[in-house]
Amino acid sequence: MPFETLGEDILLRVLCFLRRVHGFDGLRDSQINKPLQHITLTKQLWLFLVQDDNLRGALELPPPNREKLKNHSTEQLIDFVKSAVNGNFSERTTDYHISLGHMQRKYDSYFFPGARYFLLHCREQAGLHIYDVWSSRSVWTRGTPPRAHTQYQIDFAPGNPIVRILLVQANPSGWSMQIEEVDLTTSISRQIFDLGFLAGGLGLSQGFAGDVFLWTMSQSSSDNVNFLLVNWRASTYVVLRRNSSLDECIKLIPGYIISTYHDSELFGQLVLIVTTLDAFSTHWRPLTNSNFHDELQELSQSTAGLPITLKDILAHGGRSDPPIPVKLSVAPSALCRDAYSICVEMEEAPVAGRGQSRTELFYRFIPSSPERECELRRTSSTTGIPSPRVRVVWSGPSVTVSYRQYNTQPCA
Q1: Could you tell me which residues are beta bridge partners of residue 395?
Q2: What is the rounded radius of gyration, in angstroms, for the C-alpha atoms of the chain?
Q3: DSSP states of 59-75 as a string?
Q4: Is the pLDDT assigned to residue 17 strictly greater than 70?
Q5: What CA–CA distance (Å, rounded) separates 233 from 253?
Q6: Of the chain's two ends, which shows fewer C-beta atoms within 10 Å, N or C?
Q7: For residue 313, with 0-12 CB atoms within 10 Å meaning exposed, 13-18 middle and 19 or more buried, which class applies?
Q8: Which of 124, 127, 116 is nearest to 159 (CA)?
Q9: Record's superkingdom (predicted)?
C-alpha cells in the first residue's frame, strides 16, 4: 500500500513524530513526493514545530504565546523557524523582572541551557541561588562557607525538570566535592554524591554531563596538564594527560570528549578530535577519599593522552609562537535531535596589509546509536551555536532578563 494512502491525519502524526525523534532531518527525508510535500506545509505541523520544547530550548526562546500563534499563517510560522535557526533577531525584547530580595549587588550569573533558569553565585553573601525566569521565583538556595573558593558545574537538558549541580569548595588545607540534585518544579533537593574532604587541590572545572565530570588537576608543570575524569555514579575515575596551550580546548558531552590538540604526526597541525568514553573501559579505578590523593600523584607521572574516535584537520597552520587563541563551543542541535553543533573559532596570525582575522569552522556531531556509527561532519551553516540572545540588566535588588526577538517572528 502506498505510504501516502494512509490519510493526511495519520501522515501528519507521523511527521510530528519524526520531528520529535529525528529533528528537521526527519522532515527533510519525508519530502519524497508531492503528497508528502503538501502535508509538510500544513499549519498544524509548523505550529507543532514552533512550540516544540527541544527547538525552543536549543534556541533559547521564551515560552510560546499559544493563542497568538494560532492566528498566524503557515508562511509566518515557517519564517519564524527560519529566522530563529539563523539567528536573525532584532533589538526588540521580551522582558521578565525578578526581585532578588536582600541581594544588593551584581554577582556571577550562569544561564542554564535553554535560558529559562539561571544561577547566581553570591561570593560576599556566601551562597548559590537558582531562579526561574519565566515565573520570577526563587527555586533553590545553597549556602557556602564564607572563606571557601567555590566552583560549580551544571548538568541540565532543556525540558527536563531535574538539574544536577557539581560543587567543589576549596580552602588552604584542601577541598570537598559533592553533587546535589534539584527538582526545578518542586524545589526539592537531595545530595547524590559526596567525596568528602581531601588534602591537596584541583584546578578548573571543565564539564559535567550525565554520569561523568571532568576537572583540571593542579600541578607545577607548564608543559602538560592532567584531567581528572570521574564517573560519580560508579565511583570510579581515570586521569588523562594533555599538552597545555591557548590553542587546545576540551569539552564534555554525554558519552564523549570533544577537544582540539596539535598532532605531532601532522607537523603540529591543529586537529579537532572526538573521543568516546568507551575507550577508557579498562582504565577506570575505584574512587575513595582514603587513597584518592596519593593515587593521583602516582598516576600523573604515567598517564596517556586521549585516544581518537573521530577527527578533522582544522584550517589552521601548525603550532605557532605565541599560541593562537582558540575557542571551542558545543551545543545541542536545534535541527537534529540527539546531535550536537560544534564551532571552532581561531584567531589567525596578522598578515601585512590585512591585520588579524578570525576563522570559524562549524560541525555537526551525531553520537552512535544501535542503527549507526557516530559521525563528525563539517558544515557551512552557522546555525546551532546560539549567539547571545539573553541580556541581564541589574537595578538595585532586582534584575531584568531580556530575550531578544526575531525580525520575522510572529509574537512567539
Answers
A1: 398
A2: 23
A3: TTPPPP-HHHHTTS-HH
A4: no
A5: 16
A6: N
A7: exposed
A8: 116
A9: Eukaryota
Cα–Cα–Cα angle for 328, 257, 266, rounded to 5 degrees: 70
Q: Would you list the DSSP string of 283-302? A: T-EE--TTTHHHHHHHHTTT
Query: Is the pLDDT reported for residue 95 higher than 60?
Result: yes
Separation between Cα atoms, residue 306 and residue 308, nearest integer Å: 7
CB 382 within 8 A of CB 329: no
Distance CA 317, CA 145 (A): 47
The set of cell numbers assigned to 221 is 608543570
List the helix and strand counts (H, then E) for the chain.
8, 24
Distance from C-alpha of 308 to C-alpha of 274, rounded to nearest angstrom: 6
Phi, psi angles (nearest 5°) of residue 26: -60, -40
Phi, psi values for residue 381, rounded to 5°: -85, 150
Q: Name beta bridge partners: 269.
A: 263
Delimit the domains of the chain by residue range: 95-322
User: Which residue would you say has higher pLDDT here, 318 or 114?
Assistant: 114
Q: Are 312 and 376 in contact (CB under 8 A)?
A: yes
Q: What is the pLDDT of residues 131-141, one digit of tens each?
A: 999 998 899 98
Q: What is the phi/psi pair of residue 205, to 5°?
A: -70, 145
With DSSP H G I counted as helix, E B as strand and the rest as coil, what are the percentages for the chain, rounded to 5? 20, 40, 40
Asked if 151 and 206 count as a contact pair (C-beta separation under 8 A), the reply is no
pTM above 0.90, yes or no: no
Helix (H/G/I), strand (E/B), else coil: 275: strand
Beta bridge partners of 394: 399
Q: How far is CA 62 from CA 96, 133, 292, 409, in A?
A: 10, 9, 44, 12
